[in-house]
Design brief:
Layout: H1 2-84, H2 88-99, H3 105-132, H4 138-157, H5 180-184, H6 186-206
Helix pairs in contact: 1-3, 1-6, 2-3, 3-4, 4-6
Length: 211
């Protein structure tokens, strides 16, 4: 009887190490695979985050470049075209636009062709100079952009008052090259004026730096 217990105890003690030997490596392997999987997921997450950040930075650079071109392109157009208003050919070129405008015809009769051209040129140069002050005085820049928006609204009204807006032999929306298409482009300048006025006005209240 004692011998049977001893034999049974010895058999149990021999089986126990075998069980530990077989399960311990499996447990270690599971933990190793789990840790490797966690590292892989973490690496993929970091790569995705880096890609998103790079994409955001590229978008911000494009937005900043667009804002610069929009504002200072508007300034360039106003100063350039404003300066050309002092030439004879430009004064003659805007004559049919001014004399048929319900907003500008009075100035044509009061100052003549060259007087109106110089007046408009002076206003455009002043407005462009005000917009240019964005880095120095955002409030004045916003005021200049608002004035530019009003100017371009008046210019767009010429589409409804100037003869020859529609190409001869056609009907709307076929615009003539000399008048209709020339005036229609001011719609983009109107949008630029509205955006720059809003941006500069907000910057003047928040003390925001240049975009």
């Amino acid at each position: 009887m004692l011998q049977h217990r001893t034999t049974h105890s010895t058999a149990c003690s021999q089986k126990l190490p075998q069980k530990n030997v077989t399960t311990a490596p499996q447990s270690i392997g599971i933990r190793f695979r789990s840790a490797a999987r966690d590292r892989s997921v973490g690496t993929q997450g970091d790569e995705m985050e880096t890609t998103v950040l790079d994409s955001d930075n590229s978008a911000l650079r494009l937005e900043r470049a667009g804002a610069i071109v929009l504002r200072y392109g508007l300034v360039l157009v106003l100063l350039w075209i404003g300066g050309l208003k002092f030439t004879v050919y430009e004064a003659k070129g805007i004559e049919p636009l001014v004399m048929n405008s319900p907003f500008l015809a009075w100035a044509y009769h009061a100052f003549g062709v060259f007087g109106v051209a110089r007046l408009l040129g002076t206003i455009e140069i002043i407005v462009g100079s005000l917009i240019l002050l964005r880095a120095i005085n955002a409030r004045l820049s916003a005021l200049g952009s608002m004035a530019a928006a009003l100017m371009f609204l008046i210019t767009l009204s010429l589409l409804f008052s100037t003869p020859g807006v529609i190409a001869p032999g056609y009907s709307f929306p076929v615009l003539s090259a000399n008048v209709g298409q020339f005036v229609c482009k001011d719609l983009v300048l109107l949008g630029a004026s509205i955006w720059t006025s809003g941006e500069a006005l907000l910057a003047s209240r928040l003390q925001k730096p240049l975009p």
